[in-house]
Structures are given as structure tokens and as C-alpha cells.
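Module 6 notes. Inverse folding takes a fixed backbone as the condition and produces residue identities as the prediction. Think of it as a translation problem where the source language is geometry and the target language is the twenty amino acids. Below is one complete input and output pair. Work through it position by position during the lab.
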């Protein structure tokens, strides 16, 4: 997903995106480990997607381990 698209997502949708990106990365790692993965460049792309999403989550001050969105006192 492009950075501009991530910026437009709501907090809940962004957290769902992180979950989905991590799930996809896990699946790709499993396929790579079993020798089923043909496009190994997809691993790098998936890692970047996770990193982009997590960067935006941290920038917004969201708690990724919680089901509710919590902002820290310093980020307002």
C-alpha cells in the first residue's frame, strides 16, 4: 500500500492494515521456508509495507496491542 493511502486511513483501519500486513509477511516467510515461494522479492515488499504501517501507527501515537485507540499524553 502506498504511503499516501495509509495516511488517509482511519486509526482502526490502519491497525487492521498492520494486522493484515503482518499476516501476509508470515505467510510469505512460511512459503519461503518450505520452498513454495517463487517471487522472493515479495518478502522485501511485505517487510516494507509492515514498516510503513508501523511508522504511521507510532507517529499517530496508537497502541498496537490494544483493541481501542489510545493516544499518549505528549502527542495530544
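Target side of the pair, the amino acids:
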Amino acid at each position: 500500500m502506498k504511503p499516501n493511502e495509509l495516511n488517509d486511513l482511519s486509526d482502526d483501519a490502519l491497525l487492521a492494515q498492520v494486522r493484515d500486513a503482518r499476516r501476509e509477511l508470515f505467510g510469505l516467510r512460511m512459503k519461503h521456508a518450505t520452498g513454495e515461494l517463487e517471487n522472493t522479492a515479495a518478502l522485501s515488499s511485505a517487510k516494507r509495507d509492515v514498516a510503513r504501517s508501523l511508522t504511521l501507527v507510532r507517529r499517530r501515537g496508537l497502541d498496537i496491542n490494544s483493541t481501542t485507540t489510545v493516544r499518549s499524553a505528549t502527542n495530544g
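Reference fact for the lab report: The chain has a mean pLDDT of 87.
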